[in-house]
Every structure is written in structure tokens, then in C-alpha cells.
Amino acid sequence: MNYAITTIPRRLSIVVPLFNEAESVADLHRALEALAGRLDQVHGLAVDVIYVDDGSRDGSADVISGLRSDRLRVELIRFSRNFGKEAALTAGLDAATGDAVVFMDADGQHPPELIDTFVRHWLVDGDDIVYAVRRRRQEGLGYRLLVKSFYNLMNAGNTFRITPDAADFRLLSAKAAAALRGMRERGRFFKGLSIWVGFKQRKIDYQPAERIGGTTKWSFWKLLLLSLNGVTSFSRMPLRISTLLGFAMALTAFTYGLWITIVCLVHGVALPGVPGVIAILVLIGGVLLINLGILGEYLGEILDEVKDRPLYVIAEHMRREPADELSRT
Ligand code: UDP
Ligand code: MG
């Protein structure tokens, strides 16, 4: 006899992290309202939207408070300061109570129509994680190479693969969401974590739209630090490379020393070699410093984890049933 428990999915939670998106959020809200109508009609799904205001300074929270909705249950989580997108995604995930959770950007670059496809794969094909992959990157060649090498390094030695060009735009079933909720590490890389949990996954190609308004919230340094986080939290390869490099250098030095000794003994002359010595010293110094830096990155990550601070601090959490006023909880 089969005792499998089946429940009919009723609610979808959509998590929207936002930082200074006052220009875009009203348009997004309208698009989500239309989406909720479609999902209700086709699948009988109700939609919750959870806006996570990541310390915006442009009145994004006020815009959201003013949004009316007949269909959507709206939650607004306001952080006490800017904690970063990873933290905002986590706060949304923690608050989400739906049978599946969708994550999308607030700037209109993630087309809401794709959520219909996500939901279809989830409900019809039984997929646990459906994620969008950018069809074509618009950035320059140098940047693309940099991105590619980061992903290669991150995936090195792993039994799972994080796809380059995957967006944070994705749907997680209740099972996958619960697994992700259980991972409280501080050095977070959302795309990687949600692949790490496993389950039945599906990729979908998409073409990101233009931003509705405002500008990108990522600086070169923010992106570089996020990528470093991704590498150190998913791969031990840099540590291994530094060990191997150490071995290679030691072996070279040993062979070179042997050669000098032999030349000395056979020909009875000391090799004049000050420039050579300097070059080798500098080389060894450089490699040592690089290896120290790599070690430091991992040590820093351990320090972050050990401190065990919360991932974010909430200043305000409001909730509103469809057609109600936003009220504090
Ligand atoms: N975001 C955020 N906190 C940040 C930076 C960005 O919540 O510190 C949000 C931002 O408001 C947007 C999403 O993350 O909804 C993606 O950011 P953005 O569009 O600037 O990134 P891009 O599309 O350029 O990669
Ligand atoms: Mg964007």
C-alpha cells in the first residue's frame, strides 16, 4: 500500500530583494498583479509577494507601502541598513510560506512571464528547482573571461556544477526551499547554494530585459568580492594549487642547487650569480605572499562563520492581505 502524502499546492511566494528601486517597483507590482490573475486562473494558485528593502535610501519602502492590490498578499521586510542582495534573498526565503518560492529582481530585468513557465515545470513536471540562464552576455570579452575563470575555479573538484550565466531568477519547491533555509552560512553565494541542495533541477534560457529605471547596484569591487566568496565557499582548489605550487618551487630550487653543486665540483668554479639569486628570491617571496593571501581568504571566511552573527537585521516587517492596508506585525 502506498502511503505517499500529497497536498495540492495553493500558494506561491515571490521574493523581491530591492535596493533603491523606487523607480521600478510600481511597474513590477502591476506586472505581478497580472501574473497573479493568470496563476489563479490556470493553476488555482494564490500569490504572496515579499518585498525585502535592503536599506534603500530613495523611499522605495514608502512606494511599496502606497501600493494597492486586489490580488496579492504583500509583505514588506525593511532592513536596518544595506546588508546586500544575498542577505535580502535569505530574509525573503525565511519569511516565505508558499508551496514554492520564486526569487526575482525588482528592476524589471527578470520577465514576470517566465514565472508562468517556472510554475508549469514545477506543477506539471515535478521539478524542484527551475532557474533562468542568460542566453547571451552583453559584457565585453575580458569581463566574460574573468567570469568564466571564476566559475571554473568555483566548480573545480566538485561533484555538482554551478552554471555560469545562471541568474538568481528561479523557483524552488517547498522541499528545496526548506533545504536552503537550513543553510545559515555567512559567506553566501545563493546561486551556488541552491544548486548544492540537489533535487530535480531544470535550466531555462532567457534574455534579460532592460532595467525599468535606475542603475545597476553592483560595482566592480562588490562583484569581485561576491565572486571571491563564491570560490572560497565552494572550492578548496586554490588551497591545493598553492600547495602544488609550493612543491613545484621547492623541486625547482632543489634541482638548481644540485646543478650548481655539481658544476662547482666538476669545474671547480663558483658561478657568478647575483642577478639569478635576486630573481629567485623575489619569485619565492611573491609565491609565498600569494599563498598567504589565499590562506587568509579561507581564514577570514572561518572567522565570519565563527562569529555567528545573524545574516540580517530587520527594522520593520509589515503584512497586508489583498485590498487591505499595510499593517505592522
Ligand atoms: N540589490 C539588493 N541589495 C544590494 C544590491 C542589489 O537588494 O545591495 C537588488 C537590486 O535592487 C535588484 C537586484 O538586487 O533588485 C539585482 O541588482 P541589479 O539589478 O543592480 O544587478 P544587475 O541586474 O545589474 O546584475
Ligand atoms: Mg538588474
TrEMBL record:
The keyword Zinc-finger is assigned to this record: no
Pfam families: Glycos_transf_2
Highest taxon, organism lineage: Bacteria
Subcellular location: Membrane
Span of domain Glycosyltransferase 2-like: 13-150
Record's keyword terms, sorted: Glycosyltransferase, Membrane, Transferase, Transmembrane, Transmembrane helix
Name of this chain's protein: Glycosyltransferase involved in cell wall biosynthesis
